[in-house]
Amino acid sequence: MSGKIILVTGGARSGKSVFAEQYAENNAGPIAYIATAQIYDEEMKERVAIHQSRRPAHWLTFEAPYEADKAVAQAGQQAETVLFDCLTLYTTNLMLAPDAPAERESRHEYVMNEIIKLLAAAKSINKTVIFVTNEIGMGIVPDNAMAREYRDLAGIANQKVAALADEVYLVVSGIAVEIKARALHQEVAKSHG
């Protein structure tokens, strides 16, 4: 099986995780789920429980609030499909990590380096890797610097994954719309080259 990268993006409660889970189920072989959420309050605990209740018991689960590249590499040794849920929570974790630099520019570089390591790991395992992320930059401009930085970093991280992805889906109101297919992208590039 040849590896491929899939990006599933959308707003909160858009159905993106359900779509990604169904996509994973349609692939042959074992599935690994990489969870990035950290539980800090009751509401997040409820969200995690909903995700867990949907996952089949036979899926392998890896908790990776940090160093997700290592989790992807490990998952790739045991599964044919790796579902990473989600990139935006992982970006939050990196921004607020104990070893994240305090200065904005250094923190930006730190987060992007971790995202690049994650993508390198995803490519190197030569499996299907599905990234779930939130499309958070389509709303109002946040009212504080940290929230704006987060919005910007999440947007840049999404762009990096989308650039590498073979397929990108936008999920709106439970409906997935394919917005990038590698084959189509390559044909267009050839015709303009």
Automatic annotation (TrEMBL):
Entry keyword Iron: no
User: Catalytic residues?
Assistant: H51 (gmp-histidine intermediate)
Q: What class of enzyme is it?
A: transferase
Q: Does the keyword GTP-binding apply?
A: yes
Q: In which pathway does it act?
A: Cofactor biosynthesis; adenosylcobalamin biosynthesis; adenosylcobalamin from cob(II)yrinate a,c-diamide: step 6/7; Cofactor biosynthesis; adenosylcobalamin biosynthesis; adenosylcobalamin from cob(II)yrinate a,c-diamide: step 5/7
Q: Which GO terms describe its molecular function?
A: adenosylcobinamide kinase activity; ATP binding; cobinamide phosphate guanylyltransferase activity; GTP binding
Pfam families linked: CobU (PF02283)
Q: Which residues bind GTP?
A: G10, G11, A12, R13, S14, G15, K16, S17, A35, T36, A37, E63, D85
Q: Which InterPro entries match?
A: CobU/CobP, P-loop_NTPase
Which catalysed reactions does the entry list for this protein? adenosylcob(III)inamide + GTP = adenosylcob(III)inamide phosphate + GDP + H(+); adenosylcob(III)inamide phosphate + GTP + H(+) = adenosylcob(III)inamide-GDP + diphosphate; adenosylcob(III)inamide + ATP = adenosylcob(III)inamide phosphate + ADP + H(+)
**Which PANTHER family does the record match to this protein?**
BIFUNCTIONAL ADENOSYLCOBALAMIN BIOSYNTHESIS PROTEIN COBU, PTHR34848
Known NCBIfam families for this protein?
Answer: PRK05800.1
Functionally, this protein is described as follows: Catalyzes ATP-dependent phosphorylation of adenosylcobinamide and addition of GMP to adenosylcobinamide phosphate.
Q: What is this protein called?
A: Adenosylcobinamide kinase
